[in-house]
């Protein structure tokens, strides 16, 4: 056997042992390398996780800071909007007071008419008084006539006395003749007796004249009594006229007071109703949970203030119908309205300028009403922009009847402007919250609304 054959088994045995030893060490080294790699990988993952956490935390803090800044900005805008709304409410109150003053002036004019009627009645009473005075003058003329008759009776009595004196003179002449011609004594005595009889007759006539004078004096007294009675009746009629005039003046004052009180009650009731509707409208807009509910709420609230209202949303260079309120049922539906700027009229001008535009009834100048709002010659119309982030996103159109240039409710433009401005702020807040991925706030509680309503009533001076 050769040495190679002897060495080969040993070499092979050594090689096998060496191979097993190397494989064992290699296996141990591989396990150790895998363990080290796993630990390194775990440390790298942990470091990556920590770095990711730090980055996410930094980004979250940045987002929170942005959200806080946006919320603070929105709060400031809401505060400014509230102050503007309070100022607008005060302005509306001043306009309402001016309207109340006009109504009060009208009531005063009506009361002045009543006063003039009372004065006419007083003048009629004066005419009656003058008639009574004429009757008094007539009575005085009758008294003067009676006095004239009494004077004539007195003249007749004087004539009777003159005739009696003449008869006495004739008797004296007869006596003289009897003394001169005693021869004719018997005849003279007869003549004297006849003269005495004539004198007696004259005395009787004088007594009759005196009796007539007394009767005339009695008639004069009666006429004077009648005149005094007529004077007393005239005074009584004058007193009744004064009483009637005092009653008429009191009635006029009472009517004026009632008219003033009625105007104040109507104005206070109308003003309080308007403010209550405005508060309810603002409340409904604050409780909206989406853009569509805000737009619908604006149309519904506007429909309570005017005869017709329409919401048009902006789509490119056109205005698309969103919702109508108060329009005829046979008119075009809201979703079918698709207007260019020219066809939109007032609304198109609002889209171009970003400012509210109005048009009075029978106004042939300036922008016209939209094509879907027909028969607007006797209506006051207005279009207002709904603005979000400085851009017009929708336009609210409204119109209301006008009679002889006087609107049925002259305060609705100011009310709609407050509603649209508040709706724009609510849309901006919803847009910011949706962009930040935050939930919309819950609607304000009922008690809070009552507190706001009470505060507004206190500001405008209305009773609770």
Q: How much of the residues is beta strand, in percent?
A: 5-15%
Task: Output the radius of gyration.
Answer: 60 Å
Number of domains: 3
> Structural class, judged by helices and strands?
alpha+beta
CATH fold-level name of the largest domain: Beta-Lactamase
Estimate percent helicity.
over 70%
Element order: H for helix, E for strand: HHHEEEHHEEEEHH
- Biggest pleated sheet: 7 strands, antiparallel
Which blocks of ≥5 consecutive residues have pLDDT under 50? 445-464
Which word captures the global form?
Answer: rod-shaped
Number of helices: 7
CATH architecture label name of the largest domain: 2-Layer Sandwich
Mean pLDDT: 75
Number of strands: 7
CATH superfamily of the largest domain: GAF domain
Give the CATH class of the largest domain: Alpha Beta
Terminal Cα span: 131 Å
Outline the structure in words.
The chain contains seven helices and seven strands. Helix 1 runs antiparallel to helix 6, helix 2 (185-286) packs parallel to helix 6 and helix 2 crosses helix 7. Strands 1, 2, 3, 4, 5, 6 and 7 form a seven-stranded antiparallel β-sheet that branches. The N and C termini lie far apart (131 Å). The protein has three domains: 8-43; 88-109 and 268-460, 2-Layer Sandwich (Beta-Lactamase), CATH 3.30.450.40; 112-255, Helix Hairpins, CATH 1.10.287. The chain is an alpha+beta fold and 464 residues long. The radius of gyration is 60 Å and the shape is rod-shaped. Strand 5 (379-388) and strand 6 form a beta hairpin.
């Amino acid at each position: 056997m050769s040495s190679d054959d002897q060495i080969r088994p040993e070499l092979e045995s050594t090689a096998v042992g060496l191979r097993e030893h190397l494989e064992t060490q290699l296996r141990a080294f591989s396990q150790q390398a895998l363990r080290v790699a796993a630990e390194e990988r775990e440390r790298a993952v942990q470091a990556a996780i920590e770095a990711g956490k730090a980055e996410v935390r930094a980004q979250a803090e940045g987002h929170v800071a942005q959200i806080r800044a946006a919320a603070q900005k929105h709060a400031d805008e809401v505060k400014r909007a509230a102050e503007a709304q309070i100022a607008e409410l005060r302005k509306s109150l001043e306009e309402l007071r001016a309207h109340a003053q006009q109504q009060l002036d009208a009531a005063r004019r009506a009361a002045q008419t009543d006063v003039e009627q009372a004065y006419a009645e007083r003048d009629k009473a004066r005419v009656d008084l003058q008639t009574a005075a004429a009757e008094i003058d007539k009575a005085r003329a009758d008294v003067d006539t009676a006095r004239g008759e009494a004077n004539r009776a007195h003249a007749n009595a004087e004539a009777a006395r003159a005739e009696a004196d003449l008869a006495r003179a004739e008797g004296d002449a007869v006596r003289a003749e009897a003394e001169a011609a005693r021869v004719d004594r018997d005849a003279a005595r007869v003549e004297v007796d006849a003269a005495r009889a004539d004198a007696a007759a004259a005395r009787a006539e004088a007594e009759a004249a005196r009796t007539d004078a007394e009767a005339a004096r009695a008639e004069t007294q009666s006429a004077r009594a009648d005149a005094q009675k007529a004077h007393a009746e005239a005074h009584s009629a004058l007193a009744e006229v004064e009483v009637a005039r005092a009653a008429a003046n009191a009635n006029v004052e009472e009517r004026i007071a009632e008219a003033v009180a009625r105007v104040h009650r109507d104005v206070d009731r109308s003003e309080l109703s308007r403010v209550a509707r405005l508060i309810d409208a603002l409340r409904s807009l604050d409780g909206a949970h989406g853009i569509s509910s805000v737009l619908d709420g604006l149309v519904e609230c506007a429909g309570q203030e005017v005869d017709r209202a329409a919401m048009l949303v902006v789509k490119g260079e056109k205005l698309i119908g969103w919702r109508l309120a108060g329009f005829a049922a046979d008119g075009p539906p809201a979703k079918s309205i698709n207007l260019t700027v020219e066809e939109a009229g007032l609304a198109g001008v609002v889209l171009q300028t970003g400012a509210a535009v109005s048009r009075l009834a029978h106004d042939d100048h300036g922008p016209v009403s939209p094509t879907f709002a027909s028969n607007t010659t006797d209506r006051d119309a207005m279009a207002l922009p709904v603005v979000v982030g400085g851009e017009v996103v929708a336009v609210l159109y409204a119109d209301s009847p006008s009679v002889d240039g006087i609107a049925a409710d002259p305060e609705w433009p100011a009310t709609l402007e407050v509603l649209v401005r508040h709706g724009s702020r609510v849309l901006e807040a919803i847009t910011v919250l949706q962009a930040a991925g935050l939930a919309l706030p819950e609607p304000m509680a009922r008690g809070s609304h009552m507190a706001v309503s009470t505060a507004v009533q206190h500001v405008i001076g209305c009773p609770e």
